[in-house]
Amino acid sequence: MDEPQTAGPESIGERLRRLRVERGFSQRELSSPGVSYAYISRIEAGARRPSVKALRQLARKLGVSVEYLETGSDLRDVDERELRLADAELELRLAEDAEKARRVVHEILDDAIAAGDSTSALRARVAIGLAEASAGNNAAAAERLETAIGSQLLSPLQRPDVYATLGQCYAALGQPQHAVDLFEDCLARVAEESPEDTTNQVRFSTYLSYALSDLGDLGRAEDVLVDALARADEVTDPYTRVRLYWSLARLNEIREQPAIALEYIRRAIALLEVTEDTLHLARAHLLCGTIMISQGKVQEAGEQFTEAERMFGPTPAPLDLANLRSDQAKRAVLLEQPEDARRLARQALELLGEDHPAERGVALGILAEALAQQGSPEADETFKRAVQLIDQHGRQVEKADTYRSWARYLRKAGRESEALDVLDHAAQLSSSPRAQSLS
To answer: Which residue, 101, 220, 260, 306, shows the most beta carbons closer than 10 Å to its own?
Structure first.
């Protein structure tokens, strides 16, 4: 009597035949261009191993994963979750169907939490936070990203972009001290965990200088940048140098030293042209135009704004486009084109919504100037709204500029006493300890 044979592991051919029969396909019905029924017959007979292309086509028609058809076991749940998350992250970056991608990431987050998969849950929180920030929802983004970095599973060395985005959210929410604290902590951790990592030290020094400038502590912002410059020769990453030059341009613009600022932003543009990073190059052209306006080069600034808009492309981020429209509106005011200025400023306000109070205050101030040029009675109330926002969220330079513009309007309207009160308030701002660091 023959002994019963022990069944061995199922081969690819056996698995293919079983799945084909279970699904009611003949070999001819399962075939497709490049995968003939004769080829399928040889695979099932064990005489041929399928190519990668054949595996993909056969798996798709059979309704199984390539992994299962080849090995007999599907991907682990964690791996499958990671793949779905990677697809959703790419969808969010491409913005082809961002709403659908956000829903998928939220589903993955819920699934990961239920399964105790902390790695996927962390990655999902980060993806949601970055997507919220990209959409201008800074409060929601900050909440998500704070949770992510609070897990202690994500360091500044692993994901500097996450920490940079959280700092930007704090700045947009009018919380520069939070950004300062965040970037100081990042610098300390980089120095402790990887003291030879000059690139990230310079990167976070640059971010810290932004935050200190927003806080009005320009002296310390300059010290941080001087220290970063001393280490910059060791940095080969062009983007880190761009950030450094950018920060120096911004600092000197705030200090009302536009010639020096323009020199640094031109260095940044030259580096970006080599790297062909169009988004950052567009932002550099925008800042260059802003600085040119500070220098009185109003006509020349228009070319920079045109180039920035071209490089932002057909679907720019709302905040980028809002900043561009605000600067274009300011230029129109200076060229005494109030109708264009009104239109551009209102576009900026619509794009900003309620999530960027500092930028909204600036745009309202520009709109008020345009209304004043037209002699509109709305100008006074618009100046008041602008001042309320800028007082609470804006930088000292923006506050002083807006008060002076409002005083000019009041004086022109024959309201000399009110104009003097407003100018007195502007003078108090200029003489405050924080404002003195601007001189």
So the answer is: 101
- What residue has token string 């086509």? 57
Residue 326 contacts residue 363 (beta carbons within 8 Å): yes
For 355, which DSSP code? S
Question: Could you read off the pLDDT tens digit of each residue along the chain, which spans 439 residues?
Answer: 444 444 557 888 999 999 999 888 899 889 888 889 899 999 999 998 888 888 888 988 887 777 778 877 655 566 677 777 777 777 776 655 667 777 888 888 888 787 667 778 888 888 888 888 887 788 999 999 998 888 777 889 888 889 999 998 998 888 889 999 999 999 999 888 888 888 888 889 888 988 888 887 888 888 888 888 777 767 667 778 888 888 888 888 888 788 888 888 888 888 887 777 788 888 888 988 888 888 888 999 999 999 999 998 888 888 899 999 999 999 999 999 999 999 999 999 999 888 788 889 999 999 999 999 998 989 989 988 988 888 777 666 677 778 888 888 888 888 888 888 877 776 665 544 444 333 3
Closest CA to 405 of 364, 346, 436, 433: 364
Q: What single-letter amino acid sits at 229?
A: L
Task: Quickly list DSSP for 184-251.
Answer: HHHHHHHHHH-TT-HHHHHHHHHHHHHHHHHHT-HHHHHHHHHHHHHHHTT---HHHHHHHHHHHHHH
Amino acid at 439: S
Q: Give the phi and the psi of residue 167 in degrees, each rounded to 5.
A: -60, -40
Between CA 348 and CA 355, with CA 354 as vertex, the angle to 5 degrees is: 95
